[in-house]
Known about the structure:
The complex is a heterodimer.
Chain A: H1 13-17, E1 34-38, H2 42-54, E2 58-62, H3 65-74, E3 81-85, H4 93-104, E4 108-112, H5 117-125, E5 130-133, H6 138-142, H7 145-163, H8 168-180, H9 186-202, H10 220-233, H11 240-247, H12 254-271, H13 281-285, H14 287-291, H15 293-310, H16 314-327, H17 341-365, H18 380-393, H19 405-415, H20 418-431, H21 435-439, H22 446-463, H23 474-487, H24 503-536, H25 540-543, H26 545-550, H27 569-581, H28 584-609, H29 611-629, H30 632-644, H31 647-668, H32 670-673
Parallel strand pairs in A: 1-2, 1-3, 3-4, 4-5
Chain B: H1 4-19, H2 25-33, H3 41-66, H4 78-92, H5 96-110, H6 113-140
Helix pairs in contact in B: 1-6, 3-4, 3-6, 4-5, 5-6
Amino acid sequence: MNQSNCKGSMSTASSSTNWKANDVVPDQFPAGLRVLVVDDDPTCLVILEKMLRTCLYEVTKCNRAEVALSMLRENKNGFDIVISDVHMPDMDGFKLLEHIGLEMDLPVIMMSADDGKQVVMKGVTHGACDYLIKPVRIEALKNIWQHVVRKKKNEWKDLEQSGSVEEGDRQQKLSEDVDYSSSANEGNWKNSKKRKDEEEETEDRDDTSTLKKPRVVWSVELHQQFVAAVNQLGIDKAVPKKILELMNVPGLTRENVASHLQKYRLYLRRLSGVSQHQGMNNSFMSPQDATFGAMSSLNGLDLQTLSVTGQLPAQSLATLQAAGLGRSTTKSGIPMPLVDQRNLFSFENPKLRFGEGQQQQMSSNKPMNLLHGIPTTMEPKQLASLHQSAQSIGSMNMQVNTHGGQGSSLLMQMAQPQSRGQILNESTSSHVPRLPSSIGQPIMTNGIAGGVIGRNGIGDNSRGTGYNQVPPSSSMLSFPMNHTTELAGNSFPLGSTPGISNVTSKGSFQEEGNSEMKGSAGFVQSYDIFNDLQQHQHKSHDWELQNVGLHFDASQNANPIQGNLDVSPSVLVHQGYSSSQRSGQNRNASAVGRAMFSGVECVEQGNMQNFSPHLNNLLVDNSVRVKAETIPDTNCQTTLFTEHFGQDDLMSALLKQQGGIGTAETDFDLDGYSMDNIPV
Amino acid sequence: MAGSSLQQQIASMRQSLFDEGLLNEQFIELEKLEDASDPNFVKNVINVFLTDSLKNVTGIEESLLHLKADEPLDITELGKFLHRLKSGCLGIGAKKVPIEVEKMLQCYEAGDMEGMKTILPTMKQEYNILENKLEAYFELLPHIEPGQSSDPPSKGSTSSGE
């Protein structure tokens, strides 16, 4: 058996190595998925190993967390996903989760016999991409590969986007192509990939190669240099370019710095309680996050975002996070009622992180940081950097959102291309409800979904006015950001940045969308909640982030996404958020959710049947979806909120947002948007 | 395989495990995992479970007995034993033991040592019943392949689909 890293008896060794983000999906996918199982109970280990082997995965068992960590460290790319128990003697499962997210950025699934909401919530907030309740059934394990794919997809998107922030069109095209060819064949998948590569190559916008950026390891020293530069410039004036110049580190690109800056901002925000913007997210983004695992997630998120964009390696993340965590090591058990573990996790994590990261960035760059902590509106540049980092992260980002953070960042970015996503959101939201079924166990993919969605959704959500408008003005972007915070989950303004220029991100969303879809499936449900919330603006009940995932209530808000339902569910979610921000926010939320679902559904359906072809499909579809949806942000946000808010909190947050959004809405001209009107 | 009577014995003992409320459908899930390439899987799991759970039960008992009145519960490995026992029981499909363990866990988390001590005898009793029956069943199960031990052998070295 695989006591150590032995690839073991999996016969599909070849497939196991093809898990890199840019690799072609192997035909036997997901066979060969390299799973590391950590549990101190030998009975469970044996059973899990057997089950995973039956799923044709490569299994490595481990009964000590420390040993597992060292295994992972020694062989960073040796595993695709980690499944860990919560209760372990030598290290708390959540701590392990944090470490992995920081250092390796792999998707981590938590499991426990304890299904209490608090614990599950904790898992979500710490960035677990799923949470399984013991005794674990084999059916639940069969779907874990989705987390891996989602993460990778997000990575791709990040890379692409970051590389071509300004070339959103190109990406969009790419995604479009991908989407349209939703025949979901490997060919499509490959095509999209190729496209992306091409685009990436051609882009050179911020003199970043975007494509093959080597992952930048943000070592402690490097980070210190970074911080020094930032302090020298002043946090408000610290722009990546100048920071880069000050740091004077050869080989460091602006994107690297940009993404790292984003994360850093999120981190700072977190430390300061993040309630600057709207105050709503306070609970959300508040130090709570910082304290509890969220910090790690946030930090991780930020870091992850950074890593994604700036190729910040997990290690750097770890460093940063550790720093951040150091401040608030408490694991905040977010009071949010765990309505739906899945949903919470997926959404929350990504959102939290993302939002924060984004906000930070946003604020510095544009008014976008409306969303506090919700990086929904990643500016094109940000997106670009995200993309870039995503690329580099590729393999690492398998876990899209292990901590949710990443995912959210991705999502946030995705949210941006709202214009596209809008449609998607709407459409997806309607679909959303369907997804959850295929998800099997709760999809903790929050990270991924959240991340991805965040991107998409965020951008779009802000649009409210008319999804497709995706006004490049960052105002939109920022909008969602703020809203998200206020929305307290439901109305994540995630993408709402009206007209978020995420157009570019759209392209990237596609990828993310797909991966998100997976995650979003779980999330989607929750998104619905958001959507509803947004639409109704008072759907606090929906909100319960708990239900976030569950609710996917597609019917809720008029599928604002309508057009783009394709957007992967994750995307939808985001969108839903943004829409909620404005009056249309609700719509968005729903749209997002719907979009998400639709996206997810596709994914789910597709995947269930044939892994490889579907995978492609998913990817393709996702990408397509993503475009439409760009909502993902909302999803992310939702999760974020849920974590922090209890239902009541959410409600109030939402309400606050509503109020706050009002202003934003005006800007966006949400009326025009009215997701409801958007033809699905 | 030894003979129809043995098989009958196995079947009836197996059935009684369910009938007596000792095991639930999780055990059936485990049986489903067994296949030609790993024919002793169930036996292995039972073996691992029995070995480990005994350690856990013993550890729980000793921790509680030796725990001083004012000693905080979490300084012992009590929590670890409890969680592992519960996890193992759920994995094997035990029905009654985990319920008792869960009660003890709640006391543990509340710092209620006395409460745990009260539940301990019941838990032990349920565990002993389960243990005896499972062991008897284990003994009856044929050894399909030599050399099987706590871990199912990696028969899947080839593409056995494991």
